[in-house]
Fold this protein.
Amino acid sequence: MSKPIIAIKTRTLSYAALVNLGNRVVASMTGNANFPIPAPTLLALQTAITDVQNAIAVWGQKGNRGSHATLVALRQKALTLSQMLKSEAQYVQNTAQSASGSNYPAMAAIITTSGFQLANIKSPQGTLQKVQNFHNFVSRKLNANQVKLKWKKPLNTATAGTVKSYTIYRVAQPSPFSIATVIATTTKTTFIDIPTLSSDNLKWSYWIVPVGAAGNGVISDVVNVTVSNL
């Protein structure tokens, strides 16, 4: 499990949401033994919440807003509350860290009693599926002894960086993958090979294996290529 981190997703200009977050934190941390010395104090935090609530009321409802000065006052009080909540979140983070050390599940459990929410923890990508549309790309721009391989990334890759690299295997036909040799590693989805040729060695088999955080992925389907020695 990754280290749990508090996420305050409420924007400063989302006044009602900011008040709701503040009220939730005050309610959750009041009498909470996990956080005996809140900083800022819960009294100070509650005062900042009340200030924003009062400023919202002065500014008025949509369609019947107050003056620009009342809006400026509201924004300033909301900024103060936002900064206090960030300070409180840092206190909660540090206190939970001190209490749990590297026991991240315990740390997460402590944090969640504070009323703050944790940032989403990315799930690690498991074994990668085989690459898609693996084929020999034929082009007049290639020399007769060149083999251009192309493919698409595996299905269900979580992010652009999920695939760390692709390993390319080759063996003379009709040999199996088990004795194929690694000829290259690339981060691209295309590769040009120039195999060593002889009169009795013109047919080759290729495979691609994607590599991710969990190691090697599923082996691709085979691509068989006959190369000209002209």
